[in-house]
Amino acid sequence: MSRFTRYANDHWTAVAPVLALVALVLTWGRALPVAVVVLVAALLATAVLAAVHHAEVVAARVGEPFGSLVLAVAVTVIEVALIVSLSASGAKGGETLARDTVFAALMITCNGIVGFSLLTGALRRRVAVFNAEGSGAALGTVATLATLCLVLPTFTTGRAGPEFAPAQLAFAAVASLVLYGAFVLTQTVRHREYFLPVTAAGEVVDDEEHDRPAARHALVSLGLLFAALVGVVGLAKVESPVIEDGVEAAGLPHAVVGVVIALLVLLPETLAALRAARRDRVQTSLNLALGSAMASIGLTIPTIAVASIWLPGALVLGLGATHMVLLALTVAVLILTVVPGRATLLHAVVHLMVFAAFLFLAVSP
């Protein structure tokens, strides 16, 4: 019996997304008692695990790097919808919501997910091995997108403050789409081999050569994956008032709310990346991490640029000095990690310490 036939018998992975969606419909926009909040949190965690399961089934059917792309884009699209809905509702801190969410996603993916994935790979094989060509191309694209969309607004003079003028925002949106589209073309068509896992000897491992689930099973998993992700993001929003109350009660900055929600939303990708690293597929983990960072900018900025026509208030995209330092440090460390195509325990610890610095400074700016 193949592992995908065995997966079909895991009925809870089909039930969990449905229960999450039902809970989302019943709780959206309502004040919840403590018992219901705990139940929603449990359903959210179950939906995360179900999303990881279905993402693995889809990835096994379509092969790498398509599988990583499906999960990254699915999470990002739903996350963008959440940002737009919160901004349109006039939520507190709405003018900086897109910037804070995108930057938190960058730090979580490029330091948190990368760090934990490399740590898992290095502990398992002493040295985590991946394809430097593919990871380097992804890093270059992420760095360019982050600079164009998050750093430049702080220094442009078309508008007072860290904002783009309308023409500058339109250029950033078009540039983001072009860069993301060019990367997806490179990743999936022209140089797909650069994004496949490699062995310690440097041999490419093509997942298409291995056992694959049936097409019908993969299509069902794709639908359940989207249902699970909608449930995860929606229930994270349902939990956000409780998070906000806790943050305010603790006297923490409001930006911490965005960080916590981003951590919840990115849980499926984090778990999927760690499971890939445990199977000696560190390249798949990096595809997930850097692809998610790229999609977070490349899809969010164009959407927000269009939505800003009717959204209330200003759109603040420029990072402050502290966050720019963290971004520069992240890019520098990633370059030193990616270029050799091999990473040790030290590389993992460095990334995790940068991630820890981001979390600490979010709480104590």
The total strand number stands at 2
Number of helices: 13
Oligomer: single chain
Name of the CATH homologous superfamily: NCX, central ion-binding region
Beta content comes to: under 5%
Could you say what the CATH architecture is? Up-down Bundle
Strand-pairing-aware structural class: mainly alpha
**Largest sheet, order of strands side by side?**
1-2
Q: Which bin fits the share of residues in helices? A: over 70%
Secondary-structure map with pairings?
Elements: H1 3-8, H2 12-27, H3 34-62, H4 66-88, H5 97-125, E1 128-129, H6 132-151, H7 166-190, H8 215-249, H9 255-265, H10 267-278, H11 282-307, H12 321-338, E2 342-343, H13 345-363
Antiparallel strand pairs: 1-2
Helix pairs in contact: 2-3, 2-8, 3-4, 3-8, 3-10, 4-8, 4-11, 5-9, 5-10, 5-11, 5-12, 5-13, 6-7, 6-11, 6-12, 7-11, 8-9, 10-11, 12-13
Description:
By secondary structure, this protein is mostly helical. The chain has one domain (7-363): NCX, central ion-binding region (A middle domain of Talin 1). It contains 13 helices and two strands. It has helices at 3-8, 12-27, 34-62, 66-88, 97-125, 132-151, 166-190, 215-249, 255-265, 267-278, 282-307, 321-338, 345-363, and strands spanning 128-129, 342-343. The protein has a two-stranded antiparallel ribbon. The longest helix is centred in the middle third of the chain and has 35 residues, at 215-249. The radius of gyration is 20 Å and the shape is globular. The protein starts with a helix and ends with a helix. Mean pLDDT is 83; it is low at 1-9. Its main location: membrane. GO terms for molecular function: potassium:proton antiporter activity; sodium:proton antiporter activity. It is found in: Membrane.
